[in-house]
Amino acid sequence: MNKLSPSLLLLVVGVATSAAAAPIFSDNFNRGTSNTVGNGWSEVESDAADVSLVERGVGDQMMRVRDEVPLAIASQLSGISTMVYTNVTLSYDWEPTNNTESGDFLWVEWRDGTLGASWNAIAHHALVGPAAFSSASTTFAAGGLGDLEFRFRVVVNANNEGANIDNVNMVGNGGDTDQRNGV
To answer: At a CB cut-off of 8 Å and minimum separation 6, what does 87 contact?
Structure first.
């Protein structure tokens, strides 16, 4: 009976693990506070600060999305390619801002930008309770696209309500290089 040497076994496990989740996009928003998010994010807002980078801690920023009319939306519309990926997974940290209540929601959506298609829901989160970050991760059917777009949108009933978002990461099976990396 043949046995694998420990070093060969580690090599096999390491190769299998690294191919499972290749980075496609990431943004930790750590580029200073600003009313403009940058890094390919498009903003729909009624006030210049409705979609912005704000302090989470010393030297650590997050994206804030707030307001009621029009809906505050932060969209990543910069031509993210998932052509060589399957099982695309989006993960992010989120928290409600102060003053949210029942009926306030954060929606996470995607679409094929080449078709100008309708937005598809990935997830939605009720914005209730005390401001505390939660982590979310979901796999969705967006592999094989030349122009993936995704967005964070809040549905709230006051202009001081919304959500904070941080540590956005998209990975997929296949591929071997970052398409875009905002870290």
So the answer is: 139, 143, 172, 173
Q: Which helix (H) or strand (E) holds 95?
A: strand 86-96
Model confidence pLDDT, tens digit, residues 77-111: 877 999 999 999 999 999 999 889 999 999 999 99
Report d(CA 83, CA 76) in Å as an integer: 17
- 25-61 b/e with 16+ CB inside 10 Å = b? bbbbbeeeeeeebebebebbbeeeebbbbbebeeeeb
The model's pTM is 0.82
Give the distance between the most distant pair of CA atoms in the chain.
71
Q: Convert the pLDDT of each residue in 2-44 to its tens digit.
A: 454 444 333 333 333 345 689 999 999 999 999 999 999 999 8
- In the numeric block, the tokens 């929601």 are attached to 105
pLDDT for the residue numbered 6: 42
Distance separating alpha carbons of residues 32 and 62, to the nearest angstrom: 9
Strands 180-181 and 134-140: unpaired
Give 15-50 as a DSSP string.
Answer: HHHHHH-EEEEEE---S--BS---TTEEEE-SSTTS
Residue 54, beta-bridge partner list: 62
